[in-house]
Structure formats: C-alpha cells, structure tokens
Amino acid sequence: MQMEFSSATFNDPMLTTAIVEAVPDLSVDVPRGQQRPQSLSEDGVPLWTVEVMQEVTEFGRRRTDVFNVRVPSPQRPVLAAGPVRFKDLRATVSTRVQRQGSGRDSRITGVNEAIYWDAQAVEPIRQASDKGAA
User: Fold this and answer.
1) Fewer Cβ close by (within 10 Å): the C or N end of the chain?
2) In this structure, what DSSP letter does residue 109 have?
3) Strand order of the sheet with strand 107-118?
4) 27: CB partners within 8 A, 6+ apart
5) What does DSSP say about strands 82-87 and 107-118: parallel, antiparallel, or unpaired?
6) CB count in 10 Å sphere of residue 22
C-alpha cells in the first residue's frame, strides 16, 4: 500500500475534537483491574494523545480521517474543539507482514500497515471573533 502525504498535512492546521487522553505505558505489567501508569518521553515528560480530524481524498472520494497525535506535555493539554497546529509533526508507518508456513514454503497471507503520529508540542490557533456580526 502506498501512502502519500502532502506538505499541507504537516503544515496546515488540523481540527481537534478536544479529546485528550494519557498514553498508557504498555511495558509495565499491572494486576488485573488496575490502571497502567502513564508513558513518559525520553526526557521524562508525560505523553498525551490529542484526537484530530483531517479531510483526506482516497480513490477520488473525500472523507474525514480521525486519528491521534502523541505529544509530550507536563500537564494535560486543554483544548477546545477547533483548529490546532503541531510543532515538528511526524508520521511513522509500520508494516507487519503475516506469513503462513516456514522457510522456502512460507507464503504471505496478509499485510497490515498503521500510521503513528507524534509531535513535539500542540498549540491552539486563535480564531478572529465576529465582533460586528448582527
């Protein structure tokens, strides 16, 4: 599967849904029913996911894509639904090939690709208010 991103994907504002969640640390085993601790960046800063929406075109059809961008922040980012901009937005594509059999007799039975988004920071974009509207 080929994935193409335009420069607008990384430079244009995106729309947040205002949903911000802590990223759980999946490397820590916890007893059943207990919550996992929050993941930290390499610098020891808590990691959060910010849910965003963006219009995409696939096979000539427009649709809305909803995805999460992981950002470090000392406190939970408080965002209103609306435009946001990410500092140093990056996309990482992960490909997992599923095989059946082994050695020369193995064959590919499926390919799964996922995109993981992360950034250094998130900031809301202030919109001009309509002061003269009646």
Assistant:
1) C
2) E
3) 90-100, 107-118, 61-72, 47-58, 14-22, 82-87, 121-124
4) none
5) unpaired
6) 15
